[in-house]
Design brief:
B: serine acetyltransferase, domain 1
Chain lengths: 478, 722
């Protein structure tokens, strides 16, 4: 049996001990704040004035090809099926899937690129809707990672470490900043499956987990079924009135005990039952898209009426943002195009391009893009050489951690901007490399958090999201 | 006021002392190393070395090695790594402090000074000594007598005492124990603590010591306490990583732990078998199953050719780090990349000990009554060999059996283990032979631990040698081994260990709050032939254990962390015990023991029989703080979050439990009798007048008996033990 995590006990004061330390004075005040969850959930002062109040992270799991979406390489066309020069490839790690290949033939993108907006940002024809917001996008072309397989790479992106066990970005953010809405969790995660017949990698709970942080900071996963939150509906036959009566009885009986023992944990549990009850009404209200006008569904596209799709989740993301949820993380799976990339990526962009643009548009119209940071991207990039058979209109691409592209938009970032540069093969970075840790440090910075100072002591060491690395990328800040 | 409070609560880490190293030390050292190689080494050699480590060593200040540079000279510290401002050397080369340096030479150029300053701010790393081959005076890779003075490396102190209570009262600063809890509370406490289940409605509980013996003899004791050890053993039944393949034969290890605890296997044997069961009793299925301890960690698939070696070192590190944390309470894994920063665990010790596992692999074996054979299976089920009649297939981790094959471009292991600089397989620094931690080894006894396997044996004997050292109380690590396990026992009985960091008995851990008691208990364990049950009995019969949870402002002010154990704090049950208790009070618990587990939430078996798949942990368990089984976990957090409430209110399982309980109380008589019976079943006590009135009112106002039962199951009292 355990009272609390003794690992934190010797350094941090747990809430329980903090309260039991003084049963009068300050303890009584703390108890008062526990009795009023709104006080406890109050927004925390950040380290400095934030540009972003919230983050919507559109995670594209499986690694979208930068070569076919963002990193325009016109010089590749004449090099079709030529071998990638060994000098470019160097001693790069290869996955098991291409390590045995005898040749590394260059596969230029079959997709046309065009300049968009005032800024003249180059984007592929796969993203016609997103392209309308070219002047809002800041494309980082020089992101890199050291992980080469999906799970460690995604774990690194989300938690700052390839091996699980550390808190995720959203958990750090809610630990640092608290919640703005006591009826909803501060951190919500949603996962969508591709509509096409694509291989979708599994995503572990740890991507939105709290690691060694207290578990109330963990992301609550909204699922795609009838209940966006596990067990949110009353069991069959239990009406809301009966549920209220039961809750009142739980509270009354718990209070009898509380009076007897004065144990703050009892009060905390009473509060959580109330929170659960509030979520039971707040979440269905949130998830009820029936009052959204038809124009909204048109805007988000044909998939948006199906619960659990990326498009439907984008609508939910906007609704969560409106309700003060601080960290909203969408995962869209299925970007792992080892073969048949052109058809696979078309299908992925069908799923994501229009809803992403609709979300950006809605945020902008409502004035929310000013204080919402939107991030779009995956866990690594894809190789310029073809995996498997290369023809004029078909190819595959292997994993490529040395460089890839993501974009950010909204609060505090430069719009219509490209940061970083890769070589002619989008194989190596030639200018302004940005590591995963730098990306995370920058996103925290926009939330008003100094990534060096947001720490948590665990097993005798102060941990932070960016491990022992990370620098804010000043060049993308507006 | 609230804001201040909330920020204190949210940022506990801010209250802690700043760490000695800057957070980005690794990054800075790397930069500094480059600068050393490119410029700084040459600058130091040209301008400083002649008098300080080259031809002479003036003022006893030697710059030839980093260790001696940082040690300083006869005038004290000269260079403070990462802090040029505090480094005397920087003042001297800037001519801001006498004597100016370099002595009798022109001042260094501004550029040179800037480079040296930046290099010190980057930690003053050396790529090699300034004088080739020179060794520092004090070598960090050598463990000294001073290092051995740390409390946990000392032999057990002989403590003269008759009881736990005597030792606790001696340190109690004038306080006394809380009065004993009432009989009913103690009975419930004992049941939940020892078996993870509430007391049955009818049971003879008049004599607590008889009850204690009966509960310790119950098979449910093993099912309860095995779960504590499985956290420590990072036990799971899948490989982890993105493929997360099942290990369908890994459950035998879980069954081994339950059986070993129930038979009160001496703890030293428990340890020996987990490390080397196949080397002790190659034909004994239980001994083989025990080695599942080594194999329970994560292992990736899709291993590319240039990842094979690194992955192998990762796998061996998992075995060693788990052994170190679980058995010795030491963060041995820290020494993989450098000598341990806080504890006297040199990198060389790490690699010597790591080589124990050079040829150790996971294998599936088929066990027959008279023989053990390799079961050639791969991660892809279609290639596995079918099980023949009469055999049991189990996953073990040993030597000489066909290794389980993953998708890999390499073999299962390498024949040799090397010392790796910075943990990198690309920077090998010589082959290592098996050795153990110097700080826990009496010099000259190495031969005594080494075990030569019989001729023709499949195994190397190295793991058995490790187990000899780790259990050797007088010359090896046995004293620490005993301290760590008695602390775990104490922690689960009291909520906090005597050492509050159960997996870290090193310098970054917390020292024992009751050092004499810890050593006395460890001594008693060894004197009892390492059997745990007598120790449980001793703890459970103490006044300390039997105190009430009555709160006292004076005691809480005098001893906020309850390090003196002069009161008892209510403890929340773990996920498994919560669910098991609900099943028990609903009258639907299926008591079948052992065998393959399930991932069906509707299962009515105890929660220890849930299959643990790393990527798909059971939602009901995770909500109540089941840890991710990636590394050894000595303690679980206790959270109170809304999803827990949703599970207890709305999950179909909770409703089934409530209905089961309602059926049980239906026959009790009138409403009052039913309420009394429900309280007796759930909380082992009668309701008081207020509770009776509240219950009666609820039922009279239209609440069904099942609703009422679900209310009771949702009460704090159901998940807390007083």
């Amino acid at each position: 049996m355990n009272r609390m995590n003794p690992e934190t006990l010797h350094t941090g004061l747990s809430r329980r001990h903090f309260l039991s330390r003084t049963s009068t004075g300050i303890g009584a005040a703390a108890l008062a704040s526990l009795l009023n969850p709104r006080l406890f959930a109050a927004t925390q002062t950040p380290h400095f004035a934030p540009k972003a109040k919230r983050i919507i992270w559109l995670t594209q799991a499986g690694a979208p090809s930068q070569l076919d979406l963002f990193d325009y390489k016109p010089g590749l066309a004449p090099q079709f099926d030529k071998d990638l020069p060994g000098s470019v490839r160097g001693e790069q790690r290869l996955t098991g899937m291409t390590a045995g290949q005898k040749r590394f033939p260059i596969a230029p993108s079959v997709f046309k690129f065009q300049q968009h907006g005032q800024s003249g940002l180059w984007l592929s024809e796969l993203l016609p809707q997103t392209a309308k917001f070219a002047d809002d996008l800041c494309v980082i072309r020089s992101l890199h990672t050291e992980a080469i397989n999906h799970d460690p790479a995604m774990t690194l992106l989300q938690t700052g470490h390839q091996i699980g066990g550390r808190p995720s970005f959203g958990a750090w953010a809610s630990y640092g900043l608290g919640s703005e809405n006591s009826d909803l969790p501060a951190f919500v995660a949603m996962i969508s499956r591709p509509s096409g017949p694509t291989n979708a990698q599994p995503l572990h709970e740890r991507m939105w987990g709290s690691g060694f942080l207290p578990s109330r900071y963990q992301g609550v996963r909204f699922s795609s079924g009838k209940d966006p939150v596990l067990f949110l509906s009353n069991p069959p036959g239990i009406t809301s009135t009966r549920r209220r009566a039961m809750l009142d009885d739980v509270a009354a009986l718990n209070r009898l005990k509380f009076t007897e023992y004065q144990d703050p944990e009892t009060q905390a549990r009473i509060d959580q039952y109330e929170m659960a009850f509030r979520m039971q009404s707040a979440v269905p209200e949130l998830a009820d898209l029936s009052k959204e006008p038809a124009s909204i569904f048109e805007r988000y596209g044909p998939e948006s009426k199906k619960p659990g799709t990326y498009a439907a989740n984008c609508i939910l993301a906007r609704r969560l943002a409106e309700r003060g949820v601080r960290f909203i993380q969408l995962y869209h799976r299925g970007w792992d195009q080892h073969n048949n990339l052109p058809s696979g990526i078309r299908s992925q962009c069908y799923d994501t391009d229009q809803p992403t643009a609709a979300l950006l548009g809605e945020l902008k119209e409502r004035g929310m893009l000013e204080d919402t940071l939107v991030i779009w991207g995956g866990e690594f990039g894809r190789s310029v050489y073809s995996q498997g058979t290369l023809t004029k209109d078909n190819y595959g691409r292997d994993h490529h951690p040395r460089c890839y592209s993501v974009w950010m938009a909204g609060a505090g970032v430069k719009g219509g901007h490209v940061f970083g540069e890769t070589d002619d093969f989008s194989y190596n970075i030639v200018k302004d490399p940005v590591h995963i840790h730098d990306l995370n440090a920058t996103a925290l910075h926009l939330l008003g958090i100094d990534h060096l100072r947001l720490t948590y002591r665990f097993q005798g060491r102060d941990y932070r999201l960016t491990d022992v690395h990370g620098e804010v990328v000043k060049g993308i800040l507006a | 006021m609230h804001r201040l409070l909330v920020s204190l609560l949210i940022f506990p880490a801010l209250l802690a002392a700043a760490p000695a190293l800057p957070g980005d030390h690794a990054q800075r050292m790397e930069r500094g190393l480059k600068s050393f190689q490119q410029e700084v080494a040459a600058l130091l050699k040209k301008n400083c070395l002649r008098c300080h480590g080259g031809e002479k060593v003036k003022s006893d200040f030697d710059m030839a090695t980093r260790e001696d540079l940082l040690r300083g000279g006869s005038h004290g510290s000269v260079v403070v790594p990462f802090d040029a401002k505090s480094s005397v050397l920087v003042e001297q080369i800037n001519h801001a402090k006498e004597p100016h340096m370099p002595d009798d030479q022109p001042k260094l150029s501004a550029e040179a000074i800037a480079k040296i300053t930046a290099w010190i701010n980057d930690g003053a790393p050396y790529a090699e000594p300034l004088v080739a081959g020179k060794k520092p005076k004090r070598d960090a890779s050598v463990v000294t007598n001073e290092d051995r003075q740390w409390w946990s490396f000392q032999p057990l102190k002989k403590v003269n005492a008759k009881s736990i209570d005597e030792l606790l009262l001696k340190n109690a600063k004038g306080m006394t124990f809380n009065p004993p809890a009432d009989q009913a509370t103690l009975v419930r406490r004992l049941y939940l603590d020892l078996t993870g289940l509430p007391p049955p409605e009818t049971s003879d509980t008049s004599d607590l010591s008889v009850l204690t013996d009966r509960l310790l003899a119950s098979p449910k004791y093993g099912e309860r306490w095995a779960r504590h050890w499985l956290d420590v053993a990072r036990f799971a039944e899948s490989t982890g990583f993105e493929q997360d393949y099942d290990r369908p034969f890994a459950f035998h290890y879980r069954d081994f732990v339950i059986k070993a605890l129930n038979m009160d296997m001496p703890y030293d044997q428990f340890v020996k078998w987990q490390l080397a069961g196949d080397e002790y009793e190659p034909q004994n299925p239980l001994a083989l199953a025990a080695t599942g301890f080594l194999g329970a960690g994560v292992f990736p698939s899709q291993i590319t050719a240039n990842e094979v070696e690194r992955t192998r070192y990762d796998a061996m590190d998992d075995m060693l780090s788990t052994t170190g944390g679980a058995m010795l309470g030491l963060t041995v894994g820290c020494a993989r990349c450098h000598d341990h920063k806080f504890d006297p665990l040199p990198s060389r010790d790490y690699y010597q000990m790591l080589s124990t596992f050079t040829t150790t692999t996971r294998s599936n074996v088929d066990v027959w009554p008279d023989r053990v054979t390799s079961a050639i299976t791969t991660v892809a089920k279609d290639k596995s060999t079918p099980l023949q009649a009469g055999a049991t297939r189990m996953m073990i981790c040993g030597e000489g059996y066909d290794p389980i094959v993953m998708h890999t471009q390499g073999g299962p292991f390498f024949d040799k283990t090397y010392l790796l600089k910075r943990g990198s397989p690309d920077m090998k620094d010589g082959e290592v032979q098996q050795g153990f931690l110097q700080v826990l080894s009496k010099p000259g006894y190495e031969k005594r631990w080494q075990w030569q396997p019989p001729a023709g044996a499949k195994f190397s004997g190295r793991r058995r040698s490790l187990s000899n050292w780790i259990t050797d109380v007088d010359q090896g690590a046995g004293a620490l081994l005993a301290r760590v396990i008695v602390n775990r026992l104490w922690q689960h009985h009291f909520g906090t260990g005597i050492v509050a960091t159960p997996n870290d008995f090193g310098k970054s851990g917390t020292p024992p709050s009751q050092p004499e008691l810890l050593d006395w208990l460890a001594g008693r364990l060894i004197a009892n032939g390492w059997q745990l049950k007598p120790l449980h009995r001793m703890i459970l019969s103490s006044q300390a254990y039997r105190q009430s949870t009555v709160r006292s402002a004076t005691k809480e002010a005098a001893d906020p962390a309850n390090a003196l154990f002069m009161r008892r704090v209510p403890q929340r049950l773990e996920a498994e015990a919560i669910r098991d208790s609900m099943l028990a009070v609903s009258g639907t618990l299926d008591e079948t023991m052992f065998g393959p587990g399930t991932r069906d939430e509707n299962s009515r078996r105890r929660s220890i029989y849930f299959t643990i798949k790393r990527s798909l942990l059971m939602g009901s368990m995770v909500a109540f703080d089941l840890p991710e089984p990636l590394v050894s976990q000595g303690s679980r957090p206790t959270t109170t979050v809304a999803p827990q409430a949703l599970i207890l209110m709305n999950s179909p399982q909770a409703r089934t439990w409530a209905e089961g309980l309602a059926r049980r109380i239906a026959s009790a008589g009138d409403v009052k009798q039913q309420i009394i019976r429900a309280y007796t079943i759930c909380f082992h006590r009668a309701p008081n007048a207020n509770e009776l009135a509240e219950g009666a009112a609820f039922l009279q106002q239209g609440g069904t008996p099942a609703d009422y039962c679900q209310v009771l199951l949702s009460l704090n009292e159901m998940v807390y033990v007083n």
